[in-house]
Amino acid sequence: MSREAETAGLDALQLGHLRHFDNLSRQPANDWSLMQGRGFGQDDFGSYRFQLAYMTYALALTHLHRLPAAPGRFKPLFERLFEKMLLPEVWTYWHNASRGGSIFNRHLSDQYREEWDPVGRDNIMYSAYVQSMALLYNNCSPMTAMRGRVQSRSSFGPISGERAQSLRL
Q1: Which of 34, 36, 38, 118 has the most CB atoms around its CB within 10 Å?
Q2: Residues 92 and 48: beta-carbon distance below 8 Å
Q3: Cα–Cα distance for residue pair 152/169, rounded to 1 Å
Q4: pLDDT < 50 regions, the chain
Q5: Among the listed residues 104, 126, 137, the one whose alpha carbon sits nearest the alpha carbon of residue 48
Q6: pLDDT, tens digit, for every residue of 22-42?
Q7: pTM of this prediction?
Q8: CA–CA distance, 132 with 53 (Å, rounded to integer)
Q9: Nearest CA-CA partner of 85 in 120, 54, 41
Q10: What are phi and psi of 44, to 5 degrees?
């Protein structure tokens, strides 16, 4: 990446994408307007889990490479996307997929049992998305308070000496 690109911030198109992510994250729970994929039953790449995870990846990259001094602008959006990822509408596809419910796996359906826990067995995709979203949130937030565990962390490196005194940390 060129030095010019590093200091340019965001252009109108990039800012528009972030605004779109923000608007989607603010929709009420289970309102998936503008997020429906073409497939049925969340079997395609337009499913909610993919969209939510990739929005989070884009946020993390934007924060890291374009706006590293603005973690507070990203934290609420990270949290809203993460909360959406944990909604049942996102992971209930697994009860069909776990028993070979895809049209391509119908011949295998008698070999599998129905699973409702999306991270209990074999669903490495959903659990990896949840894990990567949590790790990105943790690494991009200066003060992380997720799942009751509070950890002081800065995405800019450790704060010490005079700087810490001036911030009263």
Answers
A1: 118
A2: no
A3: 10
A4: 143-169
A5: 126
A6: 999 999 998 988 887 666 666
A7: 0.70
A8: 8
A9: 54
A10: -110, 180
